Amino acid sequence: MGGSPLIPMNDYGVLGDPPALGTWTPRLSVSVVIPAYRAGATLPLVLAALDRQTYPAHLMEVIVVDDGEEPMPALPPTAPRRTRVIRPRPGLWGKASACAAGADAATGDVVHYLDADLVPFPEHVEAHMRWHHLAGCLVVLGRLRFVPGLDVVPAGEVLAAIEAGTLGKLFPDEDGTPQWTEQRWDETDDLRTAGFRAFSVTVGATASLPAALLRAAGGMDRALVMGEDTELGYRLAQAGAVFVGEREARGRHIGDSTVMRREQDVKRHNWPYLAERIPVFRWLRAHPNRRYLVSYVEVVVPATDASFEEVRATVDAVLSGKLPDVVVKLVGPWSRLGGGRRDPLGDPALDLRLVRACYEGEPRVSFAESLPEHCFPVPFRLHCPPGWTPGRSTIGSLVKFADRQGLGVLSLALDERERGGIVHARLERMAAVARARWCAGPGDALDDLVHAMFGTLWDAGEKWGLTRADAPPPPSPGRPWALDADRPSSARASGGGSPVRRPLRRTARMIRRRLRAMVRPT
Amino acid sequence: MSRAAARSAWGAWVGFESCPGLLDRLVEGFPGPWTPLASVPVPVAGPASEPPGDGSRAEGRQGPGVDAAEARGGHGPGSEAAEVPVFGCVVLAARTPADLRLAVTLRGLVPMGRRIRVAVAETPPWASPPFPVTGQGDCWRHLAGLTIGRTGQGWHLDALFDEPAAGGDVLAQVVHGLFGARRHLAQPVAGLPPGDAAWRPGDANATLVPAGGPVPERRDAPGCDLLLAGPPYGEADVAGPGGFPPVDEAVVNPIGFRQHPSSPVASLVADGPGFAVVSGGETLVRLPPGGEVTDVDVARLRETRALAVPALPGRPLVAARLVAALAAAGVPMLAEPDPARDAALGPDLARALAAVLGEEVQDDLRREELSIRLRRSALRLHGSVPRWRETAGAAGLPLPAEPSVSILLCTRRPEMIPFAIRQMERQRGVRAELVIGLHGLSARRTAVGSALLPVTVVEAPAELPFGAVLNRMADLAGGSFLAKVDDDDWYGPDHLADLLLAQLYSGADLVGSAAEFVYLEPLDVTIRRRIGTERFAPLVAGGTMLVRRSAFEAVGGFRPLPRTVDGQLLQAVEAAGGRIYRTHGFGYVLRRRSAHGHTWRQPVQSFLASSHEQWRGLVFNELMEAAVPHGRAEVRTWAGPR
């Protein structure tokens, strides 16, 4: 995708207005994937509507994934020429599985997910596809209205409207119920200003995306039964995707959705699944001390040339931070540590061995020979040199600051080496790095691209509580006596302490003794 | 000289035209009567002088008036021995320090007294208290008591003498205390009627000429070199730049400029015969019909982002006087076009004024750039020193030379010399020479020529401490100011001119810029630090110090140390009673290189910790005018803070 346009945050406005409908020449092929479960009544309507699309038929295929308990009867007479029906592999079921199976079978450049009860207007696919001709990292979402079910308006009447091109008259815009996401579109200029949260309105009812982007994000998660579209949206964002709200991709959803009918039940069902998988939904991760399927921050500590004490200081500080869902990756030549006979104390690789021994039982620490290019789908990665220790809230504040400022990379200068070079820590937003990779042409520096799209910033490590491991803790302001009393008694022995402070010290000792007595009555 | 019997009390004021009511409450125990100082008759003493030949009339002020020829003729009555009145109590009230400066010009009108009281109704926050600085005058010999006290927002000075003292001397020395002594272009000597004091503010050396009378003679010398005379200002037609009294740069200047103002754009509106500045229904400042602007008025406008100025048809000189003063103070103005006013302002200032646009002043950085351009052209065109040079020069009088600057450039890195020389060759609007110190380098093997600047080369052995090398260089320097520059920092083309200007309006012994903009080479990042500028402060960037030669010599030059000589000089100047002024940092970008093993440098982290804006790459503000890039760093355009 070299030389792709640089889209800052989610502001796809930089692409300009897409070409007007009917005035441009399409090039890319699309596979419309329709997961169908008990959709015998609405599917013929959807296929009939797809048969009347303005998008060229030779660039469009339709894959109906029949997810029913029994195979569905033959296709209705009115359907696009290139329509296939496939069945998921035996034992697999559910919408996510169906979507994944459909995407596997798709041959188009773009995969367009469409619900089996969503009747698209004739220019629906074209409105989606015009965006994919502008950039390769877009996820386009259509706009739909919920209209009364077939028990209210008979199927024949809908079919007639489709064929006469009068769907808009049968179901006027203002009569239908908009989707819950549309309010977010209104607030964010159709997602242009939605920033990092744009992905959360990904709804699978009508969503299209390049097949390559879908593959890069790992496809639909088959383990999910509901909420799979939101979770896919999260991973797409991590892969660098930009989300587009397209109001001209209109459609009519026949009947209510489950979310509308049983919102609380749907939330109750989805939240445990999403909490495990979407670390940026912080409100789902209120627990102070537990692990999740996908962590929030991966801290990378290079262990190769560091002493055991340095590595341990850094890792221990990270693990005692306030953020619970942080994992540590220790990078070093671990395979060199054989099990053969050795001098236990004279081992040349002793420090490495001790590091590995030290965290054998800690599931949050993993060991890697070399640093993988990414930690997908973990959203943040912090490179921290060994021997430097973040404070308890350092990592959390850094991430919050990066979110508030829309930063792609936040670098913290820690020290300067004698022979040049800055010892520094570096927080990377993996979505920004992935987007930069997506856009990079030959010879482009990733950091330049990240800066252009998200911004990069240097700051001082000390300001964020990232200090040298052996540095004394900063004095607590306003309580000088606490420090004084902790100091070894040399000043007292030599009589050097100022006479004014001596009674203070005595008071401090007395208070401390009393407090201790209150806590531990003997 | 005979003395009349001591009368009880005498009181005069300056600057209360628009608020006479303020006077009654100002000086406790003095009920009046009050006289405006400028209308006190000039005491006539001795025979009138012969003013110098033709062309002694101020240029640009046409029409009939006190003509040199007329002044030459008369020998007024009582010219043999003037009767100096003596009073029990002499009271002088000024609304602001700016008015006190006017009173200094009129000091010959203030009588003698046994008790002399000087009251200032209001002072700007940056002004020092009115401590008198005693000079040659012997008035303090008989001092019996001196009280200086705060009164509301102003000051009150009360001096008691055993013998009657000259009120004018006391006044002049109080003003020296406020603004610093020895800082005014006092020659060629001006002669002027009291009503024209605004044309020579703060000039204690001016000769006052009685209305219609002869120019009083001085000891063995003519009374003046140049007689200022003409119709009252405001009546003349606009004929080119000028035509209105100059801006007194000692009081109306950028001192106190706010980099991050808190109030929105205010507007200038008509208010009775005068003007007012209003913002959101609140009146910030009232200005008199003549358009005089004082330091106190400026101080009240400091929090204002910009001032919208309407065209004033029919009053071009008043409008120009107002705008010139506010521009000199660095107040960004959104001015409606007004061709007559702009003609009086001159093309340079009119252009700087037209460049200020509404959306641009919303950005603090851009606003400051525009403000600096306004100050520069207003102070260089309409400041009282350049105007006096202009007037005297046009009258054909020989002028003292503009102060010259010797640039001290000491280096150990031959590869940096061409870069450093190019930057100094770019300096505009100053007379400069370059003194290059080769510290441990041989002049034969180093290219140190310049086609544009006179160059002196000093070779020094590597083992000589850095401070000693600089002193050797200063020995050979011929300028009245010494400017120290570093070989690897970037300088805008107006760097030296801005420092000289800051020296002129602050009167400080040492001026320098803030190292606001820093390029962190190891990180390839340009930062802007939060440093207060346009104020008296003990620290300035070492590569921007401009020191008055006399002050430099008084403290003994640089301390002979291998490093931190800059800080040591600052400390020495301060310890010797000198003042240090820090001007804006827009003409200087400090380069923080990678650490070089042996020398200690301020850590990169501490630069980052104090930064509040950051750009990727080496980025210059507009006033740097595409400074010479050097080495690896690549210039990128500013994309705005994120």
From TrEMBL, chain A:
Residues 31-145 form the Glycosyltransferase 2-like domain. It comes from the Bacteria. InterPro entries: Glyco_trans_2-like (IPR001173), Glycosyltransf_2 (IPR050834), Nucleotide-diphossugar_trans (IPR029044). Signal peptide: none annotated. Residues 465-506 are annotated as: Disordered. Pfam families: Glycos_transf_2. This is Glycosyltransferase 2-like domain-containing protein.
TrEMBL record, chain B:
It comes from the Bacteria. SUPFAM superfamilies: Nucleotide-diphospho-sugar transferases. InterPro entries: Nucleotide-diphossugar_trans (IPR029044). Gene3D superfamilies: Spore Coat Polysaccharide Biosynthesis Protein SpsA, Chain A. The lineage of its organism: Bacteria, Bacillati, Actinomycetota, Actinomycetes, Streptosporangiales. It comes from Microbispora corallina. This is Glycosyltransferase. Residues 41-79 are annotated as: Disordered.
